[in-house]
């Protein structure tokens, strides 16, 4: 199944996509949040779909992020061999971990807002993994049991804030609008091999990122197991697994986003997203 949330005049509602048709499930499920996953919500949603009688939605829809208020957005840096090379860095010996503030989460078609005093706002298409149940000290062998599904994520980054201002990367990752997610949370049963997915990003119609998750340095079970040694992964948490080569920082000279730009990105089987870039006002 493909889970989504969409905007209406009455507020956000929940939906499910089946065979490319969109259906409302808000009378059954109020939100896709921690409580939903805690209560084995995906299994219950499957029963709701099997029973039929859902209202088909008119197109087009105004998609929001497919999750509501995740507790954590955890990111893995330098997790593609080619991206590490373009960054001039040695491949890490264990996952590079940083956070994005959950307040940076936005919908897949919302604007990217260049923050005040920014001159180096950059793009990063990433595969996001959504955790389905609490994970604590899990092994690599059992790690995939804790995955609810996957989504397209643009890990928008301000490189000066991230790399030149001292401290941790979180400052350059957490500005408002810096985590467009979706349009769908695609349940793991629909993704045959998350370690062989094409992912791409276009800037103003020109493809600048074109990679495959087979280039991961650390695969999904390794990442989940590693993180679970240091923190509890909670239902609805987002793990963004890194970006392939082709980010603006890697260009010579570097290229950064400016007002009026348009970013389009997608991952095989997970959908596409598009964001316009605007200045902070």
TrEMBL record:
The keyword Metal-binding applies. Gene3D superfamilies: Fumarylacetoacetase-like, C-terminal domain (3.90.850.10). InterPro entries: FAH, Fumarylacetoacetase-like_C, Fumarylacetoacetase_C_sf. It comes from the Bacteria. GO terms for biological process: carboxylic acid metabolic process. Residues 72-278 form the Fumarylacetoacetase-like C-terminal domain. GO terms for molecular function: isomerase activity; metal ion binding. Keywords: Metal-binding. SUPFAM superfamilies: FAH. Transmembrane segments: none annotated. Belongs to the FAH family. This is 2-keto-4-pentenoate hydratase/2-oxohepta-3-ene-1,7-dioic acid hydratase (Catechol pathway).
